[in-house]
User: What shape does this take?
Amino acid sequence: MDALDMPQLLALAAALGWASGVRLYLVVLLTGLAGYLGWVQLPGGLQLLAHPVVLVASGFMVFVEFFADKIPGLDSLWDMVHTVIRIPAGAALAAGVFGADHAVMALVAALLGGGFAATAHAAKATTRAAINTSPEPFSNVGASLVEDSVVPVSLWLAVVHPLVFGILFIAVLVFSVWLIRKSWRFLRSLFARVARIFSGRPDPGVTPAFQLKKNPPGDSSNV
Assistant: This one.
């Protein structure tokens, strides 16, 4: 089992930061298991994740999150609570790839990892909130399952094929920014429409059922 080289370390730091914004506990569990089972020689700053107590705790939280993330409404509440958890955790995990022996790289990794985690979390939270406006639960469950599978794939690619991961990672970041903008615009227009309805103002999106069409003078249809 060889130590990871610099391209692998850079890719792993990016993957840990980004994936923490999607499935933090799954990231901790998979990384810890990889080290515990000897699949990957974890950097010194991440070896704590392979401790049996950490594995049990993260495994339990993975179990809880797996179901909480698939219940419409509860998933958005879960995302809201984890806004203050995923982002700093993503920064810490990315920094842990380089550890105290490479302080400058660790600081840069923490800044970028936190930014990647924030981007992934924002894309996930806004998209799931937009999906929750649909009454059927299947799109919600489908999106959650995609997230469940994307996290282990991204971690695997970062270690085995760091160059491929880097190319796909840039594309995912661009797509995430686009997704945040589209979802936020949709939610903002939806909230504005609901506010108009509850304030008693007319909704421009719906034509009142009893509004009479004004016809030209002399038109007998007005009678």
User: Anything to note?
Assistant: The longest helix spans residues 162-199. Helices lie at 6-36, 52-68, 74-81, 83-96, 103-131, 138-160, 162-199.
